[in-house]
Amino acid sequence: MKKLLGDGHVAVWVALVLLIVFGTLRYDNFASAYNLSSFLGYNSMFVLISVGMCLVIMTGGIDLSVGTVAALASVVAAQLSPHGLIVALPAGLAAGLAAGALNAGMISGLRLPPFMATLATMLAAKGVALRLSDNRTVPVDWASDFTKLGMNKVGAVLPWTMLIALVVVVIAWVIVERTSLGRTVLAIGGNAEAAHLMGLKTRRAEIFVYVFSGACAGLAGVFLASGYGAGQPLEGAGWELAAIAAVVVGGTLLTGGMGSVPATVAGALLFGVVFNLLNFENGRGTISLSAHWQSVIRGLFLLVVILLQVRLARPAAKK
Amino acid sequence: MSDPLLQMTGITKAFGGVPALSDASLVIQPGEVHTLVGQNGAGKSTLIKILTGVYRRDGGTVRWQGREIDLKSPREAQEAGIATIYQELTLVPQRTVIENIVLGYEPKTRLGMIDWRAAEARTRDVLSRFGIDLDPHRALGSYPTAIQQLVAIGRAASMDARLLIMDEPTSSLDEREVEVLFGVIRQLKAQGTAVIYISHFLDELFEICDGATILRDGRTVGTARMADLTKLDLIAGMLGRSAEDIRRAGMTELAGSGSAQTEGRPVIEAVGLSTGHRLRNLDLTVRAGQIVGLAGLLGSGRTEAALALFGMDPLTSGRMALDGHPAAITSPRGAIAGGIGFLSEDRKTEGIIPDLSVRENLTLALLPRLSRMGVIDEARERQIVEQFIRALGIKTAHMDQPIRQLSGGNQQKVLLGRWLAIEPRFLILDEPTRGVDVGAKREIQAIIRERVEQGCAILLISSEFEELIEGAHDIVVMQDGRSVARLSNPGVTEDQLIHAMAAGGAA
Amino acid sequence: MNLRLDRQLTGLLAALAVLILLNMAVTPNFLNMQTLAVNVSQVATIAIVALGMTLVIASGGIDLSVGSTMAVAGALAPIIFLSDWAVGSPGLGLAASILLPLIVAGFCGLFNGVLISVFGVQPIIATLILFISGRGIAQVLTNGNLQTFHNPSFTWLGTGRILGLPVQGWIALVLTLVLAWTVRRTIYGRYLLSAGGNERAAIMAGVPVARVKIATYVIAAVLAGLAGLIVVAINSASDAARIGQLMELDAIAAAIVGGAALAGGRAPILGTLLGAVFIQLMGYTLIANGISDEMTLIVTAVIIAVAVWLQRGRRA
Amino acid sequence: QDLPALAVKDKYKVGFAQTESNNPWRIAQTKSFQDTAATCGWDLVLTDAGGSAAKQVADVDSMIAQGIDVLFLPPREESPLIPAVMRAKAAGIPTFLVDRSVDPNVAQAGRDYVSFLGSDFIDQGGRAADWLIKNFKGDKGVIVELEGTTGSSPANDRKKGFDDAVAADARFSIVASRSGDFARDEGRKVMETLLQAHADVNVVYAHNDEMAIGAIQALEAAGRKPGEDVTVVSIDGTRDALQAIIDGKMGVTVESSPFFGPLACDTMKKYAAGEKIEPWVKVEDRIFTKENAAEHIGEAY
Ligand SMILES: Nc1ncnc2c1ncn2[C@@H]1O[C@H](COP(=O)(O)OP(=O)(O)OP(=O)(O)O)[C@@H](O)[C@H]1O
Ligand SMILES: Nc1ncnc2c1ncn2[C@@H]1O[C@H](COP(=O)(O)OP(=O)(O)OP(=O)(O)O)[C@@H](O)[C@H]1O
Ligand SMILES: [Mg+2]
Ligand SMILES: [Mg+2]
Q: CA-CA distance, A109 to A152, in Å (whole number)?
C-alpha cells in the first residue's frame, strides 16, 4: 500500500479524496457518470504528460516542450486522420518521439542545459505546428475511425484515452520500480556524477526519459486531436507548468533522485478536480466567480496543498 | 614472470594548461596489493581516473592484461574488470543502501525485472562481510560518512573484479573497520584479485601492501617492494627530501604540546546535551589552551556532539556556557559570532563551495569582519588569503582558482584556513587530518599546536589513536551519544583507550 | 572564476558581433540612432527583470512569478495616480505611484522568499503560486479593465530620453553596474554565491542563507515591479492581463545565455545584460527582415540552442 | 427539425463558456452577459477556458452535467468545439454560438445548434480595406499589417478579408505582415521595428484597436505623424480608438461589438416562443470615422 501510494506522498491523495468527497456532497451531478467520464477524458492528456515529466524530473531535468509537442502531434495526427487511426495514431506518436529525440540529443549529446534545450524545442515545435497547419486548426476526418479513440468509452464511464494513459502510467511505474533503467533514472537525479562513476548507463537513461516524455506528449496530442476533432497548433500553452506542478504536488523533488509515479497521477488529477469544482461552484449562483478570482483561488489552493505537503513530508524525510 | 596485469607508462595530463601528471607510470602484478603514494596533489587520483576512463589522458599508454586499451567510461572499466572506489564518495545519497550496492548489476528475474528479494539478500551478504548492521531500505544519505564509505567498498568488492582500486578508503573509518577492510582485502587477494590501495596512513600501507609506487608532482619517482622500504624512505620519496632531514624533524607535531593544561579558564562547558539526533547526554569542558580529544566507535555520536555544540542541531535538553556565561547557541552563525569554529568531517557536502575560488572559500566565515557596511575589503582579503596559502602550504595555481579543482588534501587545508582565519576561541575539528598527506599533516598539527599555545580551546575528533593520545590533554570517550569516560594525559595508552571505548565508563 | 566567466563573455560577445555584422549587411537602416534607441527601449525591461532572475538563479532557485509581479505593479501605478488624492497633489501622487507599486512588488518577493526559505517549498512551485494568482490579483484590482491615462511625468519613465537614448536603457545600465559591483564586492554577493553553490556548507560557515534568499527574491520582485512600471509608462496604458506575459521565459533565457547555471552558484551579471541584448537583437533581426511568425519561432529555437551550445559551461 | 426545444420559463439556467479573459474585448463581452443575466432572468453559469479549446469543451461538459437550459458558446476555434456542440445537442440543450462559428461542414445551424450570433471577421477586414481604398489620397500605399495572435481565427479572417480587397487596388502593397498578438505593447514593439526597416510606410492596418494604438505610439516616437503622413485603420471600436479618431491620429475602426448580452437574451426568448431563428443572426457592425466617432464614444468600452 505504501508503495502504491508512493512513499510519504500521502498529502496529495488525502487532498484528492477530500476534494472529491466535498464535490460529491456539495453539488448535484458532480459524481454523475457524465461528469466523471468527461473529467477523465479531458485529464487523460494531463496524466500522460505529467508522467512523462515525472521521469524527466526524477533525473533532475525538465521538459518545457511537452505542451507544444502535443500541439504539433495533434496537427500531424489530424492531417493524417483520413487514413484512420491505424496511421494517425502512430504518426502523432512519432512526432512526439522525434521531438523527444531532439531534446535527448541536445541534452545528452551536446550537453545543453535541459531548461534551454527543451525551451528551444518548445518554440520550434510550435513553429513547425503552425507551419504544417498553415496557421489554422486542422479539422479531423469525422468519417474515419480516428475520433473513436477520443470519443468512445469502455463501459459507461472510462474513456479509452484514460485507459491508455493508465496503461502508460503502469508501464512507467514498472520501469521506475523494477528495472535497471528506472533505477538509473533516479540515481542520475540523486547525483549524476556519482551515477556515472558507479558505471551506470546514465546516457541511456537520460535519452530514455526525454524520448519517453516526448512520446507521452505525442500521445496526448493524438488524444487532443481525436477527442476534440482537430489538430490545434495553439493548444498546449502552459501544459508544461501544469505537468510540473502535478509532479511536484505528487511529492517528487525537482532536484531529482526521488519521486513517485502514482502520486504524480494523483497530482495531475488534483488540478483537474479543482477546475471541475470551480465550474460547479460557479453554477450554484451563490457567488459568481470572475475568471480573475478563479486564478487567485487556484493559486491559493496550490499554496494550501504545498504547505500541507511540507508539513506531512517533513517528519517523514527526517526520520 | 608473466605479463603484468596493468601497465601504465608515460601518462601525461594537464587541466587547462596546468600539468597534473607529467610522466606517471604504474605497474600492477596479478593478485598483488599495491599502493600509490604521494603528497596531496601529486596526481594519485588523477592517475586512477585516467585508468578508469573518467578523464582522457593527453599522452602515454595503458596495457591491461597484455593488451593496449583505452577505456572511455567507468562503465567500460568495470566491464573490463576494474572496480573503483573513488576518493570523493560516489554514491547516491537519496537512494537506498540496497540500490547503492546493486545498481548497475541488479539481479534480474526471468522477465528482466529487478529481483528485489535477491538484491536485498546480496546487500545483506555484503554488509555482513563488513559487520555492519543497518536497514538496507533506508536512504544511504541518512547514514554517517563511515557507513557510506563501507557501502562503497562493499559495492566494489562484490563486483568480482580483476583489479580493485581504493582511493583513500579508510579516511573516515576507525581502527576496527580498517581491520575488517583488511580482512576483506586479504580474502580478495587470495582469490587472485589485485588491489591498488591509496592512503595517507603509512602504517596501513606497511600492513597490507606488497608493492609501492611513489608519485611526486605528477611523475613516478620510484617503485619498490614494500618489504624493502622503511617509513622514512617512503616519506622521503614523497617529499623529495633526504631521509636524514625527515628524521631530524620528527614524526608527529602534536606530541608534547606542553604540560597538561588543567588550570586554564573553561572556554566551553556543556552539561547534559541532548538533541533529536541521537545525542543523549554529553558533558564536556574545554579550557583555554587545551586540546580535548573525543573518542568513540563509529556511530558513537561524536559528530552529533560537534553539531550540537555548533548550533546546527537544536538541543532538546542540556545547557552550554561560553567563557563562563550561559550561552544559547542556536545557529552556526551565532556560534561563529561567539568565536566557535567547526571543521566538518564531510568536506564535500559541508565544507567547500565548489564553484567559488580558494580565496572566497577561505574567507567565507570571516566576511563579517572583512567588510564595512556590507562591502568587502578585497585588498585585506587577498593579503590574508596569501598568508594562509603560504602558512598552510596550499597547492593551488592561484588564489582565484575554483576550489573544486584542488586535490582533496588541499581542499582540506583551505577549509582549515577558513576556521583559523576567524581566530576562534573554541575550535571543533572533526577528523581534521583526513586525507591529508604526512607532510601536510605535520604542518596542520603544528598549526593546531600553535593555536593552542596562543590559548585557543580545541575539541579534536579523530579516529586515529595516535593523534588523540599524543595530541590531546584530555580524552572524552563517547558511547551511544553519551560521554562515558574522561581520560587524562599524560599516561593514556592505546589499550586503555580501546578498553574505554568498547566497555564504556570502565576507566 | 574570473577567467572562466571572461571566456564565456567572450563567446557571447563574439556571437553578438556576428549578429551585428549580419544586420549591417542585410537589415535596412540598421546603423542609425533610432534603431539603437528602439532596441535599447525594448531590451530594457527584459534586462531589468533578467538581472533579478540572475540573482535568483545564482541562489539555486528560479522565479516564475516575475511577469505577474510586473502586472501587479503595473496595475497599481495608474490606480494610484488616477485617484482623486493624487490628482489633487500630483507631485506626491507621482512619487507614491512609483514607490507603492515597488513596495507591493517587494512583498510579492517576500512571499516567495518566505515560502522558499522558511517553509522549504521548491522555488519553481513556490513562485508558480504567484505566477497563477498574481495576475489574477492584478486583474481583480482593475476589474480586468484596461486602464489608459495621460500623465506625461509618469510616462517619462518609458518615453523620456537622456543623451538621445531612452531613460529605461540608462536605468538598466545603471542597475547592471550596481548589481555587478554588488555581486563582486559585497558580503551579500558572496553569501548569495555560497548559498547557491552549496547551501549546507554555507550555513555551516555562518552564512544567513534564509535571509540572503529572501532578500534575493525581494530584489528580483522589485526589479520586476520596476519593469512593470516601465511597460505601463511606455504604453500610457495598463492591461493587467498582458503586462509581463511570458517574461519569465525571456528573463531566464537571457540569464542562461549570459552564463548563469540553474544549479546555482554563479551570477554573471554582465553576461545577463549581454544575453538580454542578444535575445533582443535576434528578435529585431527576424522581424525587421520579414521572417514569418512561425519561422521566427523555429529560427529562434535554433539560435538559442546554438548560442547556449557555443558558450556552454558546465551543465545546469 | 431535430433541435431541442426550449420551454418558456421565468428563470433559465444559462451557460456561458467564455474562451479567455485576457483582453478588454473579452472582458466587455463577459460583462455584457453578466449584466444581461440580471435583466433577462438568467442563472448564469460562467466558465473561462483560459484560451484552451480543449478546456472549453471540458467546461461545456461540466455545464451539461450541471443541467443548464441553454448554452451560449463563443467557440475558441472552428473545429475543436464541435464535440461540445454535439454533446449539448445530445443532452437536449439548445446552443447559440456567439461571435465565432464552428466548421459548417460538420455542424450546422438549425440542425446541430440553433444559430450563430455574430459578425463576419472576413467582412470586417474587407470593410477596413474598402474605407482605405476610398479615402487614401496618395498614389502609393505602403502597408504594414499587424496581425492578431498567430493561428487564431479572427487573425486569419481579418487578414484574408483585408488582403484580398487591397490586392484589387494596384496602388497598395503590403510590405510587412507580422503578429502583434492583439496586444498594445507587442503591437508597439513590432511597429517600432518595422518602421526602422521600412521607412516609407504610410498605411498601418491592425487587426484590433489595441495594436493600432501601440502602432500610433511607435509612429509618434519615431517622429511620424499618424493621421497625416500615415493612415491607420483598424477593427474593434474601443474608446481609445474612437478618441484617436477624434484626435485625427487614426482613420477608421470597424466595429466589432462585444455587447452580445441583449441580443442573446432576445434571440433566446424568441426561440423559446417558437419563432424561427435565422441560422446567422448578423450583428450589424458600424464603422467609426471622424464623422461619427464623437457621438459614439460614450457607448464604447
Ligand atoms: N578537474 C580538475 N581541474 C583542474 N585541476 C585539477 C582537476 N583535478 C585535479 N586537478 C589538479 O591536479 C593535481 C593532482 O590532483 P589529484 O587529485 O590527482 O591529487 P592526489 O594525489 O589525489 O591528492 P590527494 O592526496 O590530496 O587526494 C592537483 O594539483 C589538482 O589541483
Ligand atoms: N554500524 C552501524 N550500524 C547502523 N547504524 C550506524 C552504525 N554506525 C553508525 N550508525 C549511525 O550513525 C549514527 C551516529 O553517527 P556519528 O556520525 O555521530 O558517529 P561518529 O561517532 O561521529 O563517527 P564518525 O566520526 O566516524 O562519523 C548512529 O546513531 C547510527 O544511526
Ligand atoms: Mg586524491
Ligand atoms: Mg563523525
A: 41
User: Distance between CA B69 and CA B54 in Å, rounded?
Assistant: 14
What are the start-end ranges of the H helices in B32-139? 44-51, 74-80, 97-102, 116-129
For D35, the grid coordinates are: 449584466
pTM: 0.90
Residues of C with a Cβ under 8 Å from any A Cβ are: 64, 115, 119-122, 124-126, 128-137, 139-140, 144, 249, 252-253, 256-257, 261-262, 293-298, 300-302, 304-305, 308-309, 312, 315-316
Residue predicted with more confidence, B433 or B333: B333
Closest-CA residue of chain A to D31? A290
pLDDT confidence band for B248 (50 / 70 / 90): low
**Side chain identity, residue D185:** D
Mutation test of ligand 1: which of B35, B45, B51, B205 has the most ligand atoms closer than 8 Å to its C-beta?
Answer: B45
Q: pLDDT, tens digit, for every residue of D16-50? A: 999 988 888 888 899 899 999 989 989 899 898 98
C207: nearest CA partner in chain B: B333
Q: Which atom, in ligand 2's list, is nearest to the CA of B142?
A: 31
- Give the C-alpha separation, C295 to C135, whole Å: 30
For residue C60, give the 3-state DSSP assignment.
coil
ipTM of the prediction: 0.88
**Cβ–Cβ under 8 Å, residues A159 and A41:** yes
Cα–Cα–Cα angle for B242, B245, B250, rounded to 5 degrees: 130
Which of A137-141, B397-401, D151-155 is predicted least confidently?
D151-155
Sign for the pseudo-dihedral over CA of C208, C210, C213, C214: negative
pLDDT in tens, A174-227: 999 999 999 999 999 888 889 999 989 999 999 999 999 999 999 999 999 999
* Chain C residues within an 8 Å CB radius of B402: 1, 4
Decide: B406 in ligand 1 pocket, CB within 6 A: yes
Is B364 close to C265, i.e. CB distance below 8 A? no
- Chain C nearest-CA residue for B415: C205
Quick one: which of A173, A159, A167 has its CA closest to A262?
Answer: A173
B489 grid coordinates: 594525559
Rounded to whole angstroms, how far apart are CA atoms B331 and B337? Answer: 10
In chain A, count of helices (H) and strands (E)?
14, 4
Residue C194 · residue C204 · CB < 8 Å = no
Best CA proximity match to B401, nearest among B410, B393, B409, B392: B410
Span C54-107, pLDDT tens digits:
999 999 999 999 999 999 999 999 999 888 888 888 889 999 999 999 999 999
* Least reliable range by pLDDT among B88-92, B475-479, C50-54, C198-202: B88-92
Instruction: Pick the ligand that lies closest to the CA of residue B143.
Output: 2
Residue nearest atom 25 of ligand 1, based on CA coordinates: B40
